[in-house]
């Protein structure tokens, strides 16, 4: 009876160590590809396009600094094929002038304001069933 209790105790200890070790791995940065001193990741996903059920084309940046290379990979459920290899484009200053998309709440508020303005302009409330 005592050996069963001891076995259950150690089982619970091992099961408790799994989430603790995963948390420590996440906090150390090793789970995201960073070294302990904060060096840049060796692999960095750049873009991906889904082609169909379980098929994608993925662009991955390998290395960092002057040695950066982009790999275009074909990814399926069974294998990964290299489709193309090229040098990573140089970062251009001012190339990130793209406005970020507004949050959904702001878009919804704008639509609601427009509908409210159009219904007050006609003078009669709109019937949502129409």
Automatic annotation (TrEMBL):
Family, as annotated: Belongs to the FliO/MopB family.
InterPro entries found in the cross-reference section: Flagellar_biosynth_FliO, FliO/MopB
The UniProt record lists the keyword Transmembrane: yes
Full protein name: Flagellar biogenesis protein
Subcellular location: Bacterial flagellum basal body; Cell membrane
Pfam family, one: FliO
Transmembrane portions of the chain: 6-25
Taxonomy, superkingdom: Bacteria
Chief location category: other
UniProt keyword annotations, A-Z: Bacterial flagellum, Cell membrane, Cell projection, Cilium, Flagellum, Membrane, Transmembrane, Transmembrane helix
A GO biological-process term: bacterial-type flagellum organization
Transmembrane as UniProt keyword: yes
GO cellular component, one term: bacterial-type flagellum basal body
